Amino acid sequence: MRVVLADDSILLREGLVRLLAEEGHEVAAAVGDADRLIAVLEQAGEEGEKPDAVVVDVRMPPTHTDEGLRAALQIRERWPDIGVLVLSQYVERRYATELLTDDSEGVGYLLKDRVVQVDEFLDALERVSTGKAAFDPEVVRQLLMRSRRTDPLGTLTAREQEVLREMAQGHTNAAIAVRLHISQSAVEKHINAIFDKLGLTGTSGYSRRVLAVLRYLGT
């Protein structure tokens, strides 16, 4: 696939360039700030050579707060066919939920520590490049660490919570079945139970899945 990288850490940036090249992917550009990232994509659009995916750090110059996130949201709005994989040093709940609220298709949120687990990083990048979601399981786990005494999520069984956790990571029903070692029909049954308990039976299609994940992440 064709990828553009944006991270102010030269060491990480060059490491990703080498990793992706060794895996047979093309790195169209590797930049150190959000403004340059947007400029690269604008030029690529004019030349008809848009990348399949972008990897962007949340915090970049000049303020090192949320420049990368704002660039990611802008990319999702201007070039929705480009997959966006956001990297972060820490679990930042607002950023993860804002990305999901914007549109969960073709977007991912991965902790930087996960990059050293090459297969997981490449799998997440491949998923966002093909329009799927890819959320770090650790991000999902930490977003759940809150009281559920009055939350409908607290009514879910342990297995239903496992299924919903897998949904939040962007896995399909078939993939969830394999990962949890259960049948696909069992996965579908659990998902229907989740929809019922979260009060989502009045909606239909993919929107119910997105709404369930958003509820799970605490939005």
From TrEMBL:
This is DNA-binding response regulator. InterPro entries: CheY-like_superfamily (IPR011006), NreC/VraR/RcsB-like_REC (IPR058245), Sig_transdc_resp-reg_receiver (IPR001789), Tscrpt_reg_LuxR_C (IPR000792), WalR-like (IPR039420). Pfam families: GerE, Response_reg. It comes from Streptomyces glebosus. SUPFAM superfamilies: CheY-like. Residues 2-127 form the Response regulatory domain. Keywords: DNA-binding, Phosphoprotein, Transcription, Transcription regulation. GO terms for molecular function: DNA binding. The modification 4-aspartylphosphate is found at residue 57. PROSITE patterns: HTH_LUXR_2, RESPONSE_REGULATORY. It comes from the Bacteria. The lineage of its organism: Bacteria, Bacillati, Actinomycetota, Actinomycetes, Kitasatosporales. One of its GO terms (biological process) is phosphorelay signal transduction system. Residues 149-214 form the HTH luxR-type domain.
